[in-house]
Amino acid sequence: MILERNEDLVLPRRNFLGRAANFTLSASAIGLLAGQSTLASAQSMDGGKDVAILNIALGLEHEAIGAYQLGAESGLLQKGVLDTAVLFQSHHKGHRDALVATIEKLGGRPVITKSQDEYARALNASTLKSQGDVIELARRLELGAVNAYLGVIPAFKDTALAKIAGRLAADETMHWSLLSNAAGKPVPPAALYFGA
């Protein structure tokens, strides 16, 4: 497949933890992200570190939105697949909006989205020649997102905060699973496939 020759397309999501290794999201930031202002106000805030890690996540959500836009505009997707891609893009827009609101509440400045042309170049959109190629691109980006979000869960001592991070990972897992099914991929044969 085309994307097997382009491993670097998913590196930003795979390296999420590596880039964020020096940061730990405060309970306050996760509370804001989850729309739980009371939880957020009960915690102390380390806005600078939180904004930095949230901006990494925001950049990844911008990328996902751009990738789904590329797929939607490609003319390669059948109606049912197109409808699902647009729905998944709306999920990523919801993640983006929550991240932006949280970053702003922490007094930070959200990273801005790149142009669609920049995403097309970065994701090597010119190699997308079929519906299968588009699905494979989305599938690999979603897997990277699953692993990135799962990777931050152990940083939380409060189980409620870990649950919120888990919900974000669950959205990405749902996307990956449905895309894998659409691509005719088998169920992973080994247990504990995600988060490794």
Give me some keywords for this one:
mainly alpha, single chain, Ferritin, globular, disordered N terminus, 196 residues
How far apart, in Å, are the first and last alpha carbons?
23 Å
Quaternary structure type: single chain
* Total domain units: 1
Number of helical stretches of at least 4 residues: 9
Give the class from helix and strand content and strand pairing: mainly alpha
Relative strand content: under 5%
Rg of Cα set: 17 Å
The CATH superfamily label reads Ferritin, core subunit, four-helix bundle
Regions with little confidence, pLDDT below 50 for 5+ residues: 1-24, 36-45
Whole-number mean pLDDT: 78
- The CATH topology corresponds to Ferritin
Element-by-element helix/strand order: HHHHHHHHH
Given this structure, which CATH class is correct? Mainly Alpha
The rough form would be described as globular
The biggest sheet amounts to: none
Number of strands: 0
Write the CATH architecture name. Answer: Up-down Bundle
Assign a percent range to the helix content.
55-70%
